[in-house]
Amino acid sequence: MKKLSLLALLVLFAAVAAPAQSVTGLLKGSAPPPPAPAPADALGRETPSGAVFGFLQVAQAGNFRSGADYLQLSAARRQAQGADLAAKLKVLMDRAFVGNMRRISQNPEGSPESGDNGIQTIGSFAGGGETDVPVVLVRVADPGAGKVWLFSYETLSRVPELYENLQEHQLESQITGHIPQFLVHKLFLGMPLWQWLGLLLAVPVAAVIAWAIVLVLAIPRRLWLQYRKRPNLHSFVHLSGPLLLLFGAIAHRVLVAYLGLPLLPRVYYYRTAGGVMAIGFFWFIYRASEISMRRLRTRAIGAGRTGTGTLMVLGERLLKVIVAGIAVLVVLAILGFNLTTVLAGVGIGGIAIAFAAQKTLENLFGGVSVLADEVIRVGDTCRFGDRTGTIEDISLRSTRVRTNERTELAIPNGTLAAINVENLTRRDKFLFNPVLAMRYETTPDQLRFLLAEVRRMLYEHPKVESGNAAIRLANFDESSLRLEISSFVLTTDNSEFNAIREDLLLRIMEIVKRSGSDFAFPSRTLYMGRDAGLDPEKIAAVEHQVQQWRDDRQLPFPDFAPTDKASFRGAISYPPPESAVGGGPK
């Protein structure tokens, strides 16, 4: 019963809703149906460019009846004369057309530069001494294809006359008169075989011409290097490949111009040759920029500007990327792609990539900022947080560091620009600041002796900067008396600093032993028996020495007298005479 009641309720709702919808439709009025989309032309005549290239393609294939569909003719005349007019128009387009095929508009409305109100002038036919005849396209309405572009009736009216007066190219006449006729009449992809043969034979000829041009260009450079007595760095060898490609493509295009290719293959050939020339040109720019940046880097490093030399490495890589990107866009434009659409897509894609690659861009600009500020250079030893290593390379994304453990550490440039980097290579001296922990049994006079003798040793040592060398009683620690040394060792080499530090520490140990005191252990000592204590004879001798200073008014506190400090300088022989690396006279 519940199922039947639910079904009855649904039927009742549908019965009520249907009249309601009918009433609503009557009140509001029936909505007009959406406009039917314009029919797409199967022949591609929606744009002037599509009409021209479509006609050339079907005419190149010999289908002149289909080519008549691109002509502004009545149905009867198209049936009677369309194929003949299409064939003659094809010959005129191949041999007498003057115009830039790349400038023909790809917009359905046409280009304002070429005309308006559905009329476009795409070029002209050379009239053999007379006034050139303009080639005009008109936009008409086709019942089955919508608005399409056709060759105008006025242009077609001049086609028979221009065809009769057309003179074949002189070079072409001479060639076709002396070669087998099957090469003239046999077609392949809409071109006679003799023209294909000419294209192939022009390749080695163009290569020889390009080689001769490159050879001639190299002669003045060799003479200049000999005159300035400079070595030949073979940089021109790296440029010869791009120059051969560039000049070879130019020479081949000049030679092919005498073959009189049909218009459509000629357009495709010119696009291909232009693309090859662009590749050769930008290849040359790529190699030239690489050589120039490397020379600038060598000069900067030779002049001592290591940071600038390192920045040149990153600049070289950025320049290569920019040259390659421009080359791709130029080649696409030459091959006939709509660069406006490509650039718009690149712009939109660039925004998306910029959002998706924020870290990559951060690393790129981080590397530029680090190198521009000359914070680090390739070869510098730096400390990054708790890691220390030598800079091996600074790339577009990261900086590679060879650590002291001989592992390779890659740090993103964005992180590198944000963290504190300590450049150890650029320090002018080493800090020497050990802490001496002395036993609490040490008497004050022992400490005075110890402080005075260590301070004197620092002043006397030739590798210690005496102007700010100091040792002070710093504090009473839990288990020792803390003495702090603050001084700088005059060296920039880490190995030499290690040797000097070792020498200083050994001398401090000798002074400590001479004072009768000793170093404290960082622990508590539990005495189970009677300790012999410190040496009373040494204590008596040291106290006597300090008392003698007092009596002579020579107590070196808070410091030695300036005259004494000057006399101390260089009193210690370093390295020692018994050292294996050389010392004083034997």
Describe the structure.
Residues 1-32 have low confidence and may be disordered. Helices cover 54% and strands 13% of the residues. The radius of gyration is 46 Å and the shape is rod-shaped. The longest helix is centred in the middle third of the chain and has 40 residues, at 263-302. The chain contains 18 helices and 15 strands. It folds into 4 domains: 48-167, no CATH class; 191-358; 359-423, SH3 type barrels, CATH 2.30.30; 430-523 and 534-568, Alpha-Beta Plaits (2-Layer Sandwich). The protein starts with a helix and ends in an 18-residue tail after the last helix. Helix 2 packs across helix 4 and helix 11 (306-334) crosses helix 13. A hairpin with a 2-residue loop joins strand 7 and strand 8. The protein is α+β, with helices and mostly antiparallel strands and 586 residues long.
Helical/strand content category: alpha+beta
Strand order of the largest sheet: 10-9-8-7-11
* Individual helix count: 18
Coarse morphology: rod-shaped
What's the β-strand tally?
15
Average of pLDDT: 79
Q: Please describe the biggest sheet, giving its number of strands, its sense, and whether it closes into a barrel.
A: 5 strands, antiparallel
Q: Kindly estimate the percentage of residues that lie in beta strands according to DSSP.
A: 5-15%
Oligomer: single chain
Unreliable residue runs: 1-32
Task: Kindly provide the radius of gyration, computed on alpha-carbon positions and rounded to a whole number of angstroms.
Answer: 46 Å
Integer tally of domains: 4
Distance between the termini: 126 Å
Summarize the amount of helix as a percent range.
40-55%
